Amino acid sequence: VPVQLSNNVTEKKMGNISLDPDAVMLGEAVITAEAPPVTVKADTTEYSAAAYPVPEGSMLEDLVKKIPGAEVSDEGKITINGKEIKKIMVDGKEFFSDDPKVSMKNLPANMIEKVKAYDKKSDMARITGIDDGDEEPVLDLTVKKGMKKGWIGNLIAGYGSQDRYEGGVMISRFKDDASLSIIGSANNTNNKGFSEFGDAGQGLGGGNAGSGITTAQSLGINFAKDTKKLQVGGNVQYGHSNNDARRKSSSETFLGETSSFAQSENLSNRNRHDFRVDFRLEWRPDTLTTIIFRPNGSYSQTESSNSSWSKTENNSHSPVNEREAASSSKSHNASFNGSLMAFRRLNSKGRNLSLGARFGYSDSESDSYSDSRTEFFEKDSISDISRYTDRNSDSRNWSVSASYTEPVFKNHFLQLRYEFAHRKQLSQSLVYDSINYYPYPEYIERGYDNDLSTRVENFYDTHTADVSVRGIHPKMMYSVGVGLTPQTSLSETTIGPNYKKNYPEQNVLNWAPSVMFRYMFDKQHVLMFRYRGRSSTPNIEDLQEVIDITDPMNLRYGNPNLKPSFNNNFTLDYRKFVPESMRSYTANLFYTNTLNSVANRMSYDPETGARVYKKENVKMKKRIITYRQKIDSLLANADNISPEQWNAILQEHLTQIV
Question: How confident is the model at residue 42, as a pLDDT?
Answer without folding.
Answer: 64
